[in-house]
Amino acid sequence: MKFTINRSAFISQLNNVLRAISSKTTIPILTGLKMVVANDSITLTGSNSDITIESVMSASNEDYELKIAEPGSIVLPARFFSEIVKKLPDKHVTIEITSGFQADITSGSAKFQINGQDAENFPHLPEVEANNTVVLANDMLKEVIRQTVIAVSKQESRPILAGIHVTLHDGLLTAVATDSHRLAQRKVQLDGVGDVNYDVIIPGKSLDELSGMISDVDDDVKMQVTDNQVLFIFGNTHFYSRLLEGNYPETSQLIPDTSDTTVEVDAGTFLSSIDRASLLSHESRNDVVKLTIKPGEKLVRISGDSPDIGMVEEDVATSAVEGNDLEISFNPNYMKDALRSFGQSTVKISFTSPLRPFTLVPTEDTENFVHLITPVRTF
């Protein structure tokens, strides 16, 4: 195996693949980077058994300035190899396997020699059928992930809640996440998906990582599903994630369809108010903020206190407030996460009682995005 490549272009692809490689793994070879050199391309693969990222560099792409002298394959220690390549002095780098699984890395006057492993021992990727492919706009996919991943559970006691439940039926893509204290649900109508149906649970960590990668691409993202893996294809990158096994809880009946009190607020302004109130609530043992609503007086007030520090009260500007008087307490962090996911839109918050979950929806699109938060009992 021997090839020469533009070093900076090589580093950008290395950085992509390194996202999937962890130094903490029970499978030692997964701390390595798999490199397969064909006659006209190089494929880099990294995996931590949960996600796998594969990046293909084609000799036909002039940016790589790729010259392949001899095909072959090897697994190299990922972190060490990437640090070497980043610190090399010249514009180009040449990598050659001289004997066995030993790689020579040459650039300018610098030469490194590092030990690798047999690429045949690296776990093989699953075969994914292309006949269930769905094409997703990259900005839409990134937004769906951003708006739902905040509600994914961080607790290990219920592993299934660490995922986002993604279904596709009759062209309607639905993504739901809940940690049993809050819930985020986003729906998108897709065109041209035919009779493809999905019902999968994708780990939130995987989708968070994917979101960071697709922010820099202009291409649409292709999504394909097998029995236990989901594959996202964009640009020259293949992003695999394992799927969570089990049944996701039925969440549709959790979202109330009636309300006794409603408030419409600007998401950004309300977020700033909650942020200020939480300065004191974070110092309190129970960390809650109280919302007092008196529609007859057009009053919506946020308050928070800490016995050791003091208290805060602030009246909230609203565009509409209707219904019954209400006092309700909630975790300010949950509210802040929800409000950030709405951006700068106007949000309608609907309450039924002080102890029942309440919902937040954008006033311009009430059907396709809802966030639900469970209040905190303070008495």
From TrEMBL:
Domain DNA polymerase III beta sliding clamp N-terminal: 1-126
Protein location: Cytoplasm
Nucleotidyltransferase found in the keyword field: yes
Transmembrane spans: none
InterPro entries linked to this entry: DNA_clamp_sf, DNA_polIII_beta, DNA_polIII_beta_C, DNA_polIII_beta_cen, DNA_polIII_beta_N
Annotated ranges, domain DNA polymerase III beta sliding clamp C-terminal: 253-377
Annotated DNA polymerase III beta sliding clamp central domain residues: 136-250
UniProt cross-references to Pfam families, sorted A to Z: DNA_pol3_beta, DNA_pol3_beta_2, DNA_pol3_beta_3
GO MF: 3'-5' exonuclease activity; DNA binding; DNA-directed DNA polymerase activity
Any Gene Ontology biological process: DNA strand elongation involved in DNA replication
Alphabetically ordered keywords of this record: Cytoplasm, DNA replication, DNA-binding, DNA-directed DNA polymerase, Nucleotidyltransferase, Transferase
Statement: the UniProt record of this protein carries the keyword Transferase: yes
Cellular-component GO terms for this entry: cytoplasm; DNA polymerase III complex
Family membership: Belongs to the beta sliding clamp family.
Subunit-structure text: Forms a ring-shaped head-to-tail homodimer around DNA.
Job description of the protein: Confers DNA tethering and processivity to DNA polymerases and other proteins. Acts as a clamp, forming a ring around DNA (a reaction catalyzed by the clamp-loading complex) which diffuses in an ATP-independent manner freely and bidirectionally along dsDNA. Initially characterized for its ability to contact the catalytic subunit of DNA polymerase III (Pol III), a complex, multichain enzyme responsible for most of the replicative synthesis in bacteria; Pol III exhibits 3'-5' exonuclease proofreading activity.
Protein name (record): Beta sliding clamp
Organism of this sequence: Limosilactobacillus vaginalis
Lineage: Bacteria, Bacillati, Bacillota, Bacilli, Lactobacillales
